[in-house]
Write a structure and sequence with these properties.
Layout (H helix, E strand, L loop, with lengths): L2 H20 L1 H28 L6 H23 L4 E2 L2 E2 H19 L9 H20 L6 H27 L2 H7 L5
Antiparallel strand pairs: 1-2
Helix pairs in contact: 1-6, 2-3, 2-6, 4-5, 5-6
Keywords: Membrane, Transmembrane, Transmembrane helix
Organism: Sandaracinobacter neustonicus
Pfam family, one: DUF308
Length: 185
């Protein structure tokens, strides 16, 4: 994907993030109606992948099978059970884990960008995701739909910043310069 496409996608992501941030309750209620079916669909895809696999090796089938079963369970639990929980686990808690996991994934990729002039953008995006996840995690009993919407909007903006940094890094051909040993200035 070239840097122009990444930049456009980052702009769209940032615009969606701003919209969600300023309309948190309506977006959260809309998403709550769609997410269960998306989870069931994703789980079905995982399970079909396990069933239709040509090579039957137990080790490579266990994890995708478990993920598929969990996704179907989560979707059905949200749709037909308490819409604020997946089994015994509340949605704010799951959302906090997703935010922390995404932030840690971003932060784990940061050492590869140490020479980049956009290093602080990469670092800031990951740190914001982790902080939002921790805020949600430690206040999960008091979290409202509006708060989740605002956090989701801010996370989308942080993801857009990360994507912009990747696009600018590609535009400036920083990875090629690092391979050749040329310092970025």
């Amino acid at each position: 994907m070239n840097w122009q496409v990444r930049t456009v996608l980052a702009g769209v992501l940032a615009a969606i993030g701003l919209y969600v941030t300023f309309n948190p309750v309506s977006v959260t209620s809309l998403v709550a109606g769609i997410v269960p079916w998306l989870l069931v669909g994703a789980g079905a895809i995982y399970l079909l992948g396990v069933v239709l696999r040509k090579r039957v090796r137990p080790l490579t089938m266990i994890l995708p099978g478990l993920v598929g079963v969990f996704l179907v369970y989560a979707g059905l639990s949200l749709k037909f059970g308490d819409p604020r929980a997946v089994g015994p686990i509340g949605l704010p808690f799951l959302f906090a884990l997703v935010l922390i996991g995404g932030g840690l994934a971003k932060l784990l990729s940061v050492p590869g960008f140490k020479q980049s002039r956009y290093f602080l953008l990469f670092l800031g995006s990951g740190a914001i995701s982790v902080v939002l996840g921790l805020i949600t995690l430690f206040n999960w009993a008091e979290v409202s739909a509006g708060f989740l919407g605002v956090v989701l909007g801010l996370e989308l903006i942080a993801d857009a910043a990360f994507l912009v940094a990747l696009a600018l890094r590609e535009r400036d051909k920083e990875d090629a310069k690092e391979t050749l040993g040329i310092a970025n200035k």
